[in-house]
Design brief:
alpha+beta, 20 helices, about 35% helix, metal-binding, EC 1.2.7.5
């Protein structure tokens, strides 16, 4: 039952959708039904959807996510981003499961969600503030327990990859949802109250949920990936030996051999932890930790995702940890997606190196990074304005010679895990109808018969994803990838956390079914989970086709420039094999 909010008129009404779980599938249906084809993402009629749904915000492992959804100003198709942390619980505690927002406020404003009611309030004095100062000001007005989803200057300035940041550190980063907030003059959504009678996250079978939580807690010591997530410095704290050449992006995916860049040691994180526990209510894994260098003016915004070190570090030719941590915190405070920012800066650096962007930035220059971030967020100067639109649009403005260096799919910058080494990831990047995401499906290397995570093979087999050598690119790779994408799409549709779930994390397929059943009080099966995943993918694809979304293709570099050293030497995505795998992917999902 979403609240439909018209920012232009201030009107708020409830709308009933019986049988809907209320995650992204409902949001996609509302977008398709309530907006005309071809609508500009910044048009006041565009729809913005924010939801915890029936599961998000429940005090249980893997149920902390909130979804943010709108037509993306970066890709022109459905942009879906998820925020971990406590915001979903705050939305549910305030008595609301979902908001569908249209219109444009006459002045900078915020939505207050309190005790099952939604109202619009002036935020003119908050314009120009970062997400941390905005959150502080709104908590000063509505209480320290308020939960806040806010944008910073990047969203106000319509940077096409602006993010929404919840509760200081937990970003809904990809696809420019912060710019949609900005176009609507919506500075924040504020959630106040704990009202079980009005929709907070009660569960049908508390005993079953408690049992699953105890199992999950015990699994943290035995599941390898969960143990890394829970430990220090955590899943996003890259430490130890450098990944093999070709595994991760270096200098805009242009260097696939020796590069001389280092990975931090665990000791490098000493003194940099801001908050390392308690991010997600009900989940003991603490996989999203907050780090920032000592002495940084605003450290609370340093929520560290797994991609930050690669996107703001190696992909820019930088390996200094403090530079990366400071850049990540600054991105969150300004409201910028680190992945798209890193990909756009890397594009500009390669263009400058090749003489296509005179005076542009250079790889391996940590001192220049803070100024570049501020210029993009403020659209300051010609370069800042150029890069604020993302690599694909910047390439179009620079001319045809720059196009090969925009590492984008459907207009969105690639995540920094190289698809040449993991072709299933490449298929997921190319075909996922909302654009490329590194967490859209589990990585190929995990299912390699020799190097993979053998404990996960049984779970993968249950959905038809047999182990296979990581380098194989054939029709079966296409089918396997589609099945994995469908599974994780089901998790996204229900706001279940992929970092807690099958096939490689502690919540197995049976645990997930039992968890949903225990929360909702009605039987939920693996078939239901996969059906939800298929429904979400079908809805996203239908919307992409309606809006004329970009082709299901990767940058030419992935097909033409092989890895040049190390255990993956020679890895490249053969075009003919990729087309065979893509056709099998479509067939598995019933797409033509």
């Amino acid at each position: 039952m979403p609240f439909i909010v018209d920012l232009t008129s201030g009107n708020v009404e409830k709308e009933h959708h019986p049988g809907e779980i209320g995650g992204s599938v409902l949001g996609l249906r509302l977008m398709a039904a309530r907006t005309p084809a071809g609508l500009d993402p910044y048009d006041p009629r565009a729809l913005l959807y924010v939801a915890a749904g029936a599961l998000g915000g429940t005090a249980a492992p893997g149920l902390a996510k909130a979804v943010f959804l709108a037509k993306s100003p970066l890709t022109g198709v459905a942009g879906e981003s998820h925020a971990l942390g406590p915001f979903a619980a705050g939305l549910r505690g305030a008595g609301v499961k979902a908001l569908a927002v249209t219109g444009r406020a006459a002045r900078p404003s915020y939505l207050l969600v309190q005790d099952g009611q939604v109202s619009l309030h002036d935020a003119s004095e908050l314009r120009g503030l970062g997400t941390a100062a905005t959150t502080d000001a709104l908590r000063g007005r509505h209480g320290r327990g308020a939960h806040v989803a806010a944008i910073g200057p990047a969203g106000e300035n319509l940077v096409r990859y602006a993010s929404v940041v919840t509760d200081h550190a937990y970003a809904a980063g990809r696809y420019g949802l912060g710019a949609v907030f900005g176009a609507k003059n919506l500075k924040a959504v504020v959630c106040v109250g704990e009202a079980p009678a009005k929709g907070a996250a009660e569960v049908a079978d508390p005993g079953a949920v408690a049992g699953l939580a105890a199992y999950y807690r015990d699994s943290l010591a035995t599941n390898p990936l969960a143990a890394i997530q829970a430990g220090m410095p955590g899943f996003a704290g890259w430490v130890g030996d450098p990944p093999a050449p070709g595994y991760a992006a270096v200098r805009n995916f242009s260097v696939t051999g020796a590069h001389g860049l280092r990975v931090p040691s665990a000791a490098d994180y000493d003194g940099r932890a801001v908050a390392t526990t308690g991010a997600c209510p009900g989940c003991p894994n603490d996989c999203l930790k907050v780090y920032a260098p000592p002495g940084l003016a605003e450290r609370r915004t340093g929520g560290l995702g797994q991609e930050a070190f690669l996107s703001l570090g190696w992909n820019l030719g930088i390996d200094d940890l403090d530079t990366v941590l400071a850049a990540n915190a600054r991105c969150n405070d300004l409201g910028l997606d680190p992945v798209s920012l890193g990909g756009t800066l890397a594009f500009a650096m390669e263009c400058a190196e090749r003489g296509l962007l005179p005076g542009g930035p250079a790889f391996g220059d940590p001192a220049a990074l803070p100024g570049l971030i501020d210029d993009v967020a403020g659209r300051t100067g010609e370069l800042g304005d150029l890069l604020a639109d993302g690599a694909a649009r910047a390439a179009a403005r620079l001319g045809p010679a720059a196009a090969p260096y925009a590492m984008t799919v459907k207009g969105a910058e690639l995540p920094c895990f190289d698809p040449r080494v993991q072709p299933g990831i490449g298929l997921g990047y190319a075909i996922a109808p909302g654009g490329p995401r590194y967490d859209a499906l589990e990585h190929d290397l995990d299912f390699d018969p020799v190097a993979g995570l053998a404990y996960s093979f049984g779970e993968a087999r249950r959905i038809g994803a047999e182990p296979a050598p990581v380098a194989e690119l054939d029709a079966e790779r296409g089918r396997r990838t589609a099945r994995l994408l469908r599974l994780w799409s089901g998790l996204d549709a229900l706001n279940l956390c992929v970092f807690a779930s099958s096939p490689t994390r502690p919540l197995t397929l049976d645990h997930l079914s039992a968890l949903v059943t225990a929360v909702l009080g009605r039987e939920f099966t693996l078939e239901d989970l996969l059906a939800a995943g298929q429904a979400r993918l079908d809805a996203m694809r239908a919307y992409a086709i309606r809006e004329g979304g970009g082709p299901d293709e990767l940058p030419a570099r992935m097909h033409e420039a092989p890895v040049t050293a190390g255990p993956h030497e020679g890895a490249v995505l053969d075009r003919a094999s990729f087309e065979v795998a893509r056709a099998a992917f479509y067939e598995e999902l019933g797409w033509r």
